[in-house]
Amino acid sequence: MNEPLLKVKPATISSTEFFARARTRLNFEVPPGLVDPHIIPRTGDSGNDRMLEIVAQEQPVRPAAVLIPVVDHPEPTVLLTQRSPNLSSHAGQISFPGGKIDATDASPLDAALREACEEVGLRREFIDPVGYLDLYGTAFGFRILPTVAKVKPGFALEINEAEVVDAFEVPLAFLMNPENHQIHTKEFRGMDRSYYAMPFAERYIWGATAGILRVLYERIYLS
Predict the structure, then answer these.
(1) Number of domains in the chain
(2) How many CA atoms lie within 13 A of 108 on its CB side?
(3) Is 138 inside any structural domain?
(4) Under a CB-based contact definition with an 8 Å cutoff, are residues 136 and 208 in contact?
């Protein structure tokens, strides 16, 4: 299956309106489900929800934070990375800058900013955090709290090749167009669960990254 979930026209809002809506609808309250295994992040997909319930019973919760860097060009873009093929998890996949939350991180926001600097050299003076998006759970036990941020153009990246092999920008308008939101299914212990994919040129954006982008679309564009 590779059809958009909702048959709606592509949303057309300006960069100014996007950030205005984000600041109104998002905040920096940390959801308790980030660390509490008894609180299951709901996805609206029965197969995914059941999978997350099973994972929470079998694996420890792994709190993580990512940055959704929306670069404030006249036509905004989202900065994404391609993970190293040598990593132990999600090797070679398209991702946001981010990773697990360390004990020394003051907050999930601090973890996301630290990881963005470590992975691609995106310095904090270019980043204007807007707020947390919804908590996102994965089949590997990660509870990911994304931070949406407005990024000032003009930064120079320094790729940490031990973690990331490339960084690139994708137009926000492409990622927020539901016509580009493919839905696929895969089996998890006899159950069908769905996942999103948003292929862009030679880049295959899927899994948690595409799922989080879909949540961003639903929170900012659908209302």
Answers:
(1) 1
(2) 27
(3) yes
(4) yes
Residues forming beta bridges with residue 71, ordered by sequence position: 77, 151
143 SS3 class: strand
| pTM of structure | 0.91
What does the pLDDT look like over 99-136, one tens digit per residue?
999 999 999 999 999 999 999 999 999 999 999 999 99
Separation of alpha carbons 111 and 98, rounded Å: 7
pLDDT in tens, 4-33: 333 445 557 888 999 999 999 999 999 999
Identity (one letter) of the amino acid at 108?
A: P
Does the residue 209 lie in any domain? yes
Structure tokens at 188: 């998890």
- CATH number, domain at 146? 3.90.79.10
C-alpha to C-alpha distances, 200 to 41, 151, 169, 176, nearest whole angstrom: 28, 21, 11, 12
Is 120 inside a domain boundary? yes
Give the domain range for residue 170: 17-25+43-222
